[in-house]
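User: For my dataset I need records formatted as: sequence, then structure tokens, nothing else. Please produce one.
Assistant:
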Amino acid sequence: MKEFDMDIRRSMFQLSCCKNISNGLRMKRRKKLATIMCDVLQSDPSLYYFQGFHDICTIHLLGLDNEQVARNVAVQMSKMYLKDHHGADFKTTIQVIKLVPLIIKRFDTRVYQVLEEAQVTNGIFALSWIITGFAHTIDQIEVVLLLFDAMFANHPAFILYICAAFILRPSSRSGLLQLEDKSMPMVHHYLQNIPAPCLSSKPYKHNRIATEKQVLNTENEISKLILSARVMMQDFPPEDLLCLAPFVPKSSVVRFPSDLFGHWFHCQVNADPGMRRRRTRKSMALIFAAISFTGMLSASLFTYWTNK
């Protein structure tokens, strides 16, 4: 597959932690990456490769630092969270990304008006964010891991709320509204080049047990972004959002019933004894879920870190 091979050749460059590694190490990681991607696609004949999937698997491989665990996580992510994008075409994805402007309209009509006048309410500006979980956009692996944690602890539609919160955060919103030229090309260019949220001076460590107080008092932008998205999803849940979007196919994962999601997730996480034995630390995502999604049985796949 041409796209598959090209993405492998492009991999292990985008993240800041990969820029200065040796060619030997880069090739070694690429080989592991290709194996993981092939295993995922072979696990289910209905899964087609899509450009950018290598970015997601790279995060799993480098973040989990264990090829087998990374493979297991990638399989579960593809079968649920990324299912819409693994189709033979992007027809479902193109409809799903239209939900981002609808979320923005609910919470900020002024920003939505700018998007509407620029004719970008099709949500195409959010395509790469949604299909890669921002892994193609953000070069700090710590930031992407936090986003993955939050996505794994929530409904598959959560990434849509993160995209909306990304645009509506104060710095992004003010920059958009202050554009002198609000034509389609300029607005689209601005949205595609919004500075990524960054961490505080104390980077998120995956083997650190975070307390609820630490999460609520954190000063880093990414945690504020995630918490903002959670508040938005609580106030405007997927079921209400989809009432305004009959164009979204019934087969889309964003239509997965919220009340059944916790049970599904619990079954998937506990299906692999090897992963259960590696459960050594609470993840940040579990804290987010406990704070803002009371009653929902959810946990982050990134809970399962291997002992080094």
